[in-house]
């Protein structure tokens, strides 16, 4: 008799079905299943299920098993209770020549659906988004002080004194004032301003490629089995990469 362990996480029911005896002990089917192997498994084990009626042939249950397997592939990640109402509505169109009503087909359909145990892992999905912005380029006037040294010339009057020679003149000191006018010149600095172009500025856009390092933890699901007593576990099918 096959045993079933029910585990509930985040309001989603996941059923793990494993056989404890025989060659089918501990078998779990991943996302990709072999319909022929599944049909062989149920043909050898359908008589051990609680819905089996004495004397019933496997062909009576075969459409239900096939329907459950197809549904498990169609609705990955959903528990049977989440899709049961949808499966019951579609059963009359999917049962083919089978005369089983949904109340009788539900058992084998759920068995086949729940036998497909799917393992999930998180993978990073990185998207790029473009940030748009604007760059304003404008002219503004900045006042700064410039110092320029300009050489200039000016004239000075130099008075030189030296001893006089010769005799005295009686009219030399007559009490009258006398002056000499000597024009002198001086250069002055006149400052004017003019605007001269110093440089030209052109504005353009260019693309710069760089690599952004993304480092995030991800989770993945793995199967863990516990052996009790003399039961042995053997796994068939594809092995997920760790």
Point out poorly predicted stretches.
1-31
**Rounded to an integer, what's the Rg over CA atoms?**
53 Å
Instruction: Provide a count of the helices.
Output: 4
Give the strand content. 5-15%
Q: Which bin fits the share of residues in helices?
A: 10-25%
- First-to-last CA distance: 32 Å
Category from helices, strands and their pairing:
mainly alpha
Describe this structure in words.
The protein is mostly helical and 242 residues long. It has a domain at 3-115. The chain contains four helices and two strands; from the N terminus they run ββαααα. It has helices at residues 35-45, 58-74, 80-94, 102-115; strands at 3-9, 12-18. A two-stranded antiparallel sheet has the order 1-2. A hairpin with a 2-residue loop joins β1 and β2 (12-18). α1 packs across α2, α2 packs across α4 and α3 (80-94) crosses α4. It is rod-shaped, with a radius of gyration of 53 Å. The two termini are 32 Å apart.
Features:
rod-shaped, disordered N terminus, 242 residues, 24% helix, mainly alpha, two-stranded antiparallel sheet
List the helices and strands and how they pair.
Layout: E1 3-9, E2 12-18, H1 35-45, H2 58-74, H3 80-94, H4 102-115
Antiparallel strand pairs: 1-2
Helix pairs in contact: 1-2, 2-3, 2-4, 3-4
Question: What is the structure about, briefly put?
Answer:
The protein is mainly alpha-helical. The chain has 4 helices and 2 strands, in the order ββαααα.
């Amino acid at each position: 008799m096959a045993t079933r362990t029910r585990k509930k996480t985040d309001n989603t029911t996941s059923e793990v079905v494993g056989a404890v005896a025989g060659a089918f002990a501990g078998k779990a089917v991943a996302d990709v299943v072999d319909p022929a192997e599944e049909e062989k498994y149920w043909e050898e084990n359908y008589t051990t299920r609680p819905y089996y009626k004495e004397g019933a042939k496997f062909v009576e249950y075969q459409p239900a098993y096939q329907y459950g397997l197809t549904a498990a592939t169609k609705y990955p990640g959903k528990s049977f209770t989440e899709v049961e109402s949808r499966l019951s509505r579609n059963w009359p169109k999917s049962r083919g020549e089978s005369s089983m009503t949904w109340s009788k087909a539900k058992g084998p359909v759920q068995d086949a659906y729940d036998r497909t145990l799917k393992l999930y892992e998180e993978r990073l999905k990185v998207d790029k988004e473009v940030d748009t912005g604007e760059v304003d380029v404008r002219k503004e006037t900045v006042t700064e002080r410039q110092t320029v040294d300009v050489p200039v010339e000016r004239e000075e009057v130099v008075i030189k004194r030296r001893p006089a020679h010769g005799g005295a003149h009686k009219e030399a000191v007559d009490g009258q004032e006398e002056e000499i006018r000597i024009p002198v010149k001086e250069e002055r600095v006149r400052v004017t301003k003019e605007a001269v172009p110093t440089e030209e500025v052109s504005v353009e856009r260019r693309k710069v490629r760089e690599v952004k390092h993304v480092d995030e933890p991800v989770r993945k699901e793995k199967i863990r089995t516990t052996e009790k007593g003399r039961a042995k576990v053997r796994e068939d099918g594809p092995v997920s990469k760790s």
